[in-house]
Design a protein that fits this description.
The chain is α/β, with parallel strands linked by helices. The chain is 54% helix and 13% strand. The chain has an eight-stranded mixed beta sheet, sandwiched between helices. The longest helix is centred in the first third of the chain and has 17 residues. It is elongated and about 70 Å long. Bound molecules: guanosine-5'-diphosphate.
Length: 297
Amino acid sequence: MAFEGLTERLQNAIGKLRRKGKISESDVKEVMREIRLALLEADVNFGVVKDFVKTVRGRAVGAEVLESLTPAQQIVKIVNEELVKVMGEQAVPLNKSPKIPTVIMMVGLQGAGKTTTASKLALKLKNEQNARPLMIAADVYRPAAIDQLKTLGAENDLPVFDMGTDVSPVKIVEEGLKVAEENKNDYVFIDTAGRLQIDEKLMQELADIQKLASPDEVLLTVDSMTGQNATEVAEGFNEQLNITGVILTKLDGDTRGGAALSIRAVTGKPIKFIGQGEKMADLDVFYPDRMASRILG
Ligand code: GDP
């Protein structure tokens, strides 16, 4: 289960305080040492852990906590509040264009869940807002990617625009946007190519698509199972494309969860959705407070 190790370690660390009546500054120091290790082991970014621990420690050595009759509860409260802060406080909704269509460009490494997530999100908008999305298949390097998008489109009654693999992605997007305009689609999803890792050529291609399409959202899909790497990938894409948000996938798996806690702090960009399974319905809005409660168990 996601966060299992982290939750257990945080609970153990704070639990030790429950047996004490009053706590001292050195008790706080000890519990913070354990929280620090728990976060590092869960693949939370080093700088994020450092700042987090400093803030929590600063608040926890305050007189109210040390003199409280329930110090453990006070510390749980502080940790919870700071977890929520690190993850961005509030859920951040999708950007919406004042005039249709709202263009959402999906980017991410191969296998992160980009194609699946594009379809999940398009379907969510269709179901919840009666939206009429068009999906554009612009991953010309992996023929299977186009077929996958077409299959998902057919299964969920979502139109897909494609021109096969012999046309440049920029051209496909250009033509796709014309079709969306003619058909008055209110959302357009551009499914772009992924690679195994960030490379110059891919980034240039994505930048070209971005220039042409002026998307309202550049959503990066990252796989939470990839640990520290997920945060590095987010940083890399953000530097090159100035992303507008992140979708963190595979939180149903055995992820240690560090990416959920690091991405916002490192990139300054919000996690907007989380993927929690392979099925189309397994996509949820990211609520920092709910995630903090889940982490604390
Ligand atoms: P892409 O290469 O980025 O387009 O990735 P795909 O959309 O093809 O997804 C890669 C694999 O991850 C597929 O088998 C998906 O079903 C799976 N996947 C995507 N999102 C999730 C998720 O949130 N949870 C789980 N368990 N699997 C996911």
